[in-house]
Design a protein that fits this description.
The chain is an alpha/beta fold and about 190 residues long. It contains three helices and nine strands; from the N terminus they run βββαβββαββαβ. It is globular and about 45 Å long.
């Protein structure tokens, strides 16, 4: 079994993990999708096979093959063997986390996407791939009709990151471009 994983969401943001020697890569044959499952109260990213799509992300080595910490972080997902491509176009076996299709449902008002989660993801794509990478993320992710809870002022995402004004503008412009609907955070 490969000792590498492919991160396509928050794992692209190196500030959200301690996996050293992560490197940019592409994953052909997959696309990102927003899903909800019974094991989490909020919607989150998953991937599903799509022969016409390639997504960008990072691959990283799992030290000593100890998957326990990463599996705990990615609970609700199953690991799948896939072939990522490094910038030099070299194929590399990886494990990719995906929600099992029978357990995946479309996000709903009761199970929205956290804006603080999107912020962390886009910050990672900006740092790894620049504005083109952030645009690629929005273009290769489906499910943007899901409601997005604006928790930016009081982040609920456990690995939330502080964004610069420029990074925030990229997120906001990207969400506007996909027609996303933001919901106000309910009063405490």
């Amino acid at each position: 079994m490969t000792q590498h994983f492919f991160g396509y969401g928050s794992l692209v943001n190196r500030a959200t993990h301690a996996y050293e020697q992560a490197q940019p890569a592409a994953l052909p044959g997959w696309r990102r999708v927003w899903v909800h499952t019974a094991v989490r109260p909020l919607a989150y990213l998953s991937v599903e096979p799509d022969a016409s799509s390639t997504i960008l992300g990072l691959i990283a080595h799992v030290p000593g093959g100890d998957w326990a910490a990463l599996d705990a972080r990615e609970y609700g997902y199953n690991r799948h063997l896939a072939q990522a491509r490094l910038p030099c176009d070299t194929p590399h076996g990886v494990q990719v986390y995906a929600v099992p299709r029978p357990k995946a449902a479309a996000p709903a008002t009761a199970h929205p996407i956290l804006l603080s989660y999107i912020d962390a993801v886009i910050q990672g794509f900006l740092r790894e791939y620049g504005p083109e990478g952030a645009a690629h993320f929005f273009a290769t992710t489906t499910g943007w009709q899901a409601p997005i809870l604006n928790d930016r002022a009081a982040p609920q995402y456990p690995r939330a990151q502080k964004l610069s004004a420029a990074e925030t503008a990229v997120v906001d412009d990207g969400l506007a471009g996909v027609g996303a609907t933001l919901l106000a955070l309910p009063p405490a």
